[in-house]
Specification:
The complex is a heterodimer of chains A (257) and B (124). Chain A has a single domain, classed as P-loop containing nucleotide triphosphate hydrolases (Rossmann fold, 3-Layer(aba) Sandwich). Helix content of chain A is 38%, strand content 18%. Chain A is built from ten helices and eight strands. A seven-stranded parallel β-sheet of chain A has the order 4-3-5-2-6-7-8, sandwiched between helices. In chain A, β7, α9 and β8 form a beta-alpha-beta unit. Chain B is built from three helices and six strands; from the N terminus they run αβαβββββα. Chain B is of the alpha+beta class. Classes of the chains: A alpha/beta (257), B alpha+beta (124). The interface between A and B is large, with 48 and 47 residues. The complex binds guanosine-5'-triphosphate, magnesium ion and zinc ion (ZN) (2 copies). One zinc ion binds next to loops of chain B.
Chain lengths: 257, 124
């Protein structure tokens, strides 16, 4: 006698072994004791994101645009650093910015004053407001003339966890941490510091008023990512900007030749 | 965070992984490998999965999360070891030429289908 799929499902879920009607159906009994049919999948859950990121990366290569993904916890100074960075780079480099700000256009307005084209991203309703995913960047590119720029900077959502996980097709990643956040940030968010190429320790103008252990922060970073370039800056006073700008210009030059 | 998006992807990939000869089968279990450094909160993922799997072949399925430790490999001395602390420097030779060989997984390893009688799938 044939049991319906629905009944069988119930049977298996409750691990009840009906010793009646299934007897003599060798196949069935064996499968039932194993519980189910196991199928090898071995697929990355973020495959779709990585494929889109790969497509973005190809487009950037073809259009000769260097892309920087800028990440940090909320309020570390990404927008301020970018405003100052753009102001000093614009004369020699054509740049554009994509900014992911969850609910305001404040960051976009501040950045637009630099004269660089700015695209503000409205993040997905579906759990995408903690990071910028590759498809979101792909869509934002509709609003940018890639032929007209050398450098595209993405100000990611203020979050030290998710953005580290989502490739957007960028060339380099930079993380901003500020001295008001505590020197254990790198140890608490190791993946972010591991996947980034450079770290900007910002708000150094405040150091005289704080007990921030700069040396400890730098040592922790060196243990997580020994090859990382670390720049101590103040986006307010532009202290330390020369070394940071030189690094950025070098990266662009290496890619664009 | 983004666990709803992850849950939806898990459900999509699991559904697409049901072989054609078992079309219509229900998924009983999804075995997921999640690296210790992956940006996923297990409880939150389980909750989202439960909500999002409704009316899909994965409805009622169990999501089993295996946590994968962070393992490193030293390119200079060939050493392999597991770390608890975020220290990416070789604990044998001190080299910084260290690669992470596991710990970032977010992979569907296997799915298990509810056993079905092949007769059930025969039309007529
Ligand atoms: N003293 C001082 N304040 C700074 C510095 N950089 C940024 N700030 C201040 O820190 C606050 C946050 O700066 P933002 O540039 O908006 O930070 P953000 O990372 O873009 O913030 P979100 O986009 O909201 O995550 C602002 O009040 C800035 O004026 C700095 O170097 N020194
Ligand atoms: Mg900002
Ligand atoms: Zn996220
Ligand atoms: Zn070694």
């Amino acid at each position: 006698m044939i049991t319906s799929l629905g009944e069988r499902h119930l049977l298996l879920r409750h691990h009840e072994h009906g010793h009646g009607h299934d007897h003599g159906h060798g196949d069935l009994i064996e499968t039932k004791t194993r519980g189910s049919r196991r199928i090898k999948v071995v697929k990355r859950v973020l495959d779709a994101n990585d494929i889109t990121a790969g497509r973005n990366r190809e487009l950037f290569a073809c259009k000769k645009v260097f892309v920087l993904n800028m990440m940090s916890s909320p309020g570390s100074g990404k927008t301020t650093t970018l405003e100052k960075t753009l102001a000093r780079l614009m004369p020699e480099m054509k740049a554009a910015v994509i900014v992911g700000d969850i609910c305001t256009t404040n960051d976009a307005d501040r950045l637009a004053s630099s004269g660089a084209p700015v695209v503000q991203i409205n993040t997905d309703q579906f759990g995408g407001d903690c990071h910028l995913a590759a498809h979101v960047i792909e869509k934002a590119l509709d609003g940018i003339d890639l032929d007209a720029i050398d450098l595209l900077i993405v100000e990611n959502i203020g979050n030290l966890v998710c953005p580290a996980e989502f490739d957007i097709g960028e060339d380099k990643r930079v993380v901003v941490l500020s001295v008001t956040e505590g020197e254990d940030k790198p140890a608490k968010y190791p993946l972010m510091f591991r996947v980034c190429d450079a770290a900007l320790i910002n708000k150094t103008d405040l150091l005289p008023y704080l007990d921030y252990d700069l040396k400890a922060a730098e040592e922790t970073i060196a243990r997580i990512n020994p090859g990382m370039s670390v720049f101590k800056i103040s986006a307010k006073t532009e202290d330390g900007f020369d070394a940071w700008l030189d690094w950025l210009k070098d990266q662009v030059r290496v890619k664009l030749g | 965070m983004h666990e709803m998006g992850i849950a939806l992807e898990v459900i999509r990939i699991a559904g697409e992984s049901i072989p054609a000869e078992h079309a219509g089968a229900r998924i009983e279990r999804i075995n997921l490998k999640v690296g210790k450094l992956a940006a996923v909160v297990a409880d939150s993922l389980l909750f989202c999965f439960q909500v999002a799997s409704k009316d899909t072949p994965a409805e009622g399925a169990e999501l089993v999360i295996e946590q994968i430790p962070v393992k490193l490999y030293c390119r200079d001395c060939g050493r392999q070891w597991t770390v608890e602390e975020p220290v990416f420097v070789c604990n044998g030779c001190g080299s910084a030429q260290v690669e992470m060989i596991s710990g970032r997984e977010l992979d569907i390893d296997t799915i298990e289908l509810v056993d079905e009688d092949s007769d059930d799938n025969q039309p007529g």
